[in-house]
Amino acid sequence: MRASSIDIHPNATWSTSGITVAGGNGYGSETNQFDWPWGLYVDDDLTIYVVDWGNHRIMEWKSGATNGKVV
After folding, report:
1. To 5 degrees, how large is the angle CA 24–CA 47–CA 18?
2. What is the pTM of this model?
3. DSSP per residue over 1-54, as a string?
4. Coil vs helix vs strand at 55
5. In this structure, are residues 43 and 50 in contact, taking their beta carbons and an 8 Å threshold?
């Protein structure tokens, strides 16, 4: 079973135009790629943490970064 700590109202709406903030460069093991991203967490500083299941790592993406860092 998977769970989320995000409560999205059934009638929620949002803009369909967005930006890629992490990954977006195809599957792979470079610091700007993921292989089966599985979960994510965003902290108060807007740092994104992504579980990169296929590469057996957790990646940290600081706000505005173009590459992540293995943590």
Report:
1. 45
2. 0.67
3. ----S----TT----S-----S--S-BSSSTT-BSSEEEEEE-TT--EEEEEGG
4. helix
5. no
Structural domain including 42 reads 37-70
Residues 12-66: tens digit of each pLDDT:
887 787 777 777 777 777 788 888 888 889 899 989 999 999 899 999 989 888 8
As for how many domains the chain has, the answer is: 1
Six token digits for residue 10: 């059934």
Specify if 64 maps to a domain: yes
> Which amino acid appears at position 49 of this protein?
Y
| Distance linking the first and last C-alpha atoms of the chain | 25
